Amino acid sequence: MLLRPYWLVFSVLLAWGGLVCSPNELKAQADFPLVEVAAVIETPVDTAYRVIGTVNPLRTSMVGSAVAGRVLEVYVNQGDAVEAGQPLAQLRTDTLELELAAAEAELELYRQQLAEMVNGSRVEDIAEAKARSLGAKAAMENAARQLQRLEELMSSGAAIDADIEDARERSIFTQYTHAAAEATLARVEKGPRSEQIAQAAARVELQQQNVLVIKDRIVKHTMIAPFDGFISAKFTEIGAWIESGGQVAEVIELKEVEIQAPTTAENATKLKRGDTVRVEFPELPHKLLTGVVHRIVPVADSRARTFPVLIRLQNEIIDDSPLLLSGMMARIDLPTGKPQVLPLVPKDALVLNQLDRSVFVVEMERSGETGTVRKVPVELGIAMEGLIQVTGDLSAGDLVVVLGNERLIPNSQVRVTNKVISQTAKN
User: Fold this and answer.
1) Whole-angstrom Cα distance, residue 297 to residue 312?
2) Cβ–Cβ contacts within 10 Å for residue 402, how many?
3) HEC letters along the chain
4) Tens digit of pLDDT for each residue in 163-175?
5) Residue 164 belongs to a domain with what CATH number?
6) How confident is the model at residue 29, as a pLDDT?
7) What is the pLDDT of residues 303-316, one digit of tens each?
8) Residue 393 sits in which domain range?
9) Cα–Cα distance for residue pair 237/231, rounded to 1 Å
10) Angstrom distances, CA of residue 336 to CA of 50, 266, 299, 300, 339
11) Do 294 and 223 sit in the same domain of this protein?
12) Signal peptide: which range, if any (predicted)?
C-alpha cells in the first residue's frame, strides 16, 4: 500500500544557538534573501508511464441561423474571444420591424377598447339614454291622448275611420319606441356584458402573442455565442444569403481543456477518475501543469487497441489569449508504472526555465537560521497531491526552497523564515 504525504506549514522560531555575532555580521545576515523551505521525503510511489495526447476544446459549438435571410453584419473574425450571449452576426429585419410596429399599434387599439368596456358607460351616455327614454315616453303619452280624443269625436260623428286608424298606429309606434328607449337606457346603465369584456380581453391576449411571435422572429435573426470562448472558424460574410440552419461560426471553449491520450489496457485499468497527472508541453518548458483524469473511455480503438484517457486541465487566459491551444501536443505522465521509493518535493520547490529544471537545496549553518543554497538539476515524474516526484542528487530530509526561489543563484546565502515539515499517513 502506498504512502501519501501530507504537509503542515508552521513558523519555526530560530534560536541563536549560543553563537555570538558581530554587528557587521548581523547586518549582513539581515540582508540575506528570505526563504521558506520544506524537507524532501521519500515514499513508495508508482513511477510514471509517459503517453502522448492532444489538446481539445472542452466544448465546440457550430452556431447556425434559425431562419433564412440576408446577412447585414458580421461582428467577429476567426480567433476573436467572445462572451456568452455576444452577437456574432445579424440578418436584415426591415420587413419584420414594420410588421412589429403594425402589430403593436393594433395591440394598443385592442387594449383601449378593452379599457373602454371595463370602465363602463360614461355619465353623459347614461344622461342621453334617459333623455331619449323620457322623450319617447312623452311622445307615447301624447299619441295615446290623440287617439282617445279622436275616438270621442268618432262617437259624435266628427271624425272619420281613417283618422282613427292613423292615430292608433302612431300610438302603437310610440309605445314600441318608448320600450326601445327604456331597453337602451337599461343597457347603458348596466354597461357591457361580461362576455363582451371577455372577448375584448381575448383579442388583447391574442395580439400580444402575435407581437411576441414577431419579436421572436426578429431575435432569431441575430446569432449569438452560446458560451465564453473563441471563434475557431467563420463561414459567412456581409451581404451573403444564408438558409435556415446555415453555418455562421464555430465557437470553442478553452477556459478548461480536455486532453485525449491513448494508452494500453494495462495502464487504463490502473487509472481511476480523479487521479492527478502531470502534463508537459514542448512549447511551454517553463510551466509545471497538472490535470485530473476525467474519464477513461471503455472502448478500445479497433486498430491500435488503445483506450482513450480524457484529462481535464485548467487553462490560463491572458489578454484574451489562451495559454493552451486546441491541437497542441501534450506529454502526460500516468501514475501506472512499477512502485519505487523515490524523492518527492512540493510543486513550489521546482524552478523551471528554457534550459533545465531544478530545485535549490539549503545547507544550513550551525545557527539554524541561515544557510547556503546549491542548485540541483532534477527530472520530473508523477504528480501526487501537490507533490512532484523527482530524480536527482537529493536525499530524504534535504531542505528545498519553496518560497523565494525565483531569483536565487547557486552558492548564495539565505535566511530561513519558515520550515515545512512533512508527515505521512497510510492510505
Assistant:
1) 14
2) 23
3) CCEEEEEEEEECCCCCCCCCCCHHHHHHHHCCCEEEEEECEEEEEECCEEEEEEEEEEEEEEEECCCCEEEEEECCCCCCEECCCCEEEEECCHHHHHHHHHHHHHHHHHHHHHHHHHHCCCHHHHHHHHHHHHHHHHHHHHHHHHHHHHHHHHHCCCCCHHHHHHHHHHHHHHHHHHHHHHHHHHHHHHCCCHHHHHHHHHHHHHHHHHHHHHHHHHHCCEEECCCCEEEEEECCCCCCEECCCCEEEEEEEEEEEEEEEEECHHHHHHCCCCCEEEEECCCCCCCCEEEEEEEECCCCCCCCCCEEEEEEEECCEECCEECCCCCCEEEEEECCCCEEEEEEEEHHHCEECCCCEEEEEEEECCCCCEEEEEEEEEEEEEEECCEEEEEECCCCCCEEEEECCCCCCCCCEEEEEEEEEEEEEEC
4) 888 888 999 999 9
5) 1.10.287
6) 59
7) 989 999 999 999 99
8) 3-57+253-426
9) 14
10) 9, 9, 19, 18, 8
11) no
12) none
Q: CA-based Rg of the chain, rounded to a whole angstrom?
A: 46
CA separation for the pair 12, 85 (Å, rounded): 53
CA dist 29 and 406 (Å) reads 20
Check: CB of residue 35 under 8 Å from CB of residue 417: yes
Does 301 have pLDDT greater than 70?
yes
Judge if 407 and 341 occupy the same domain. Answer: yes
Q: Is residue 380 part of a domain?
A: yes
Encoded amino acid at 389, one letter: Q
Over residues 245-293, the pLDDT tens digits come to: 999 999 999 999 999 999 999 999 999 999 999 999 999 988 889 999 9
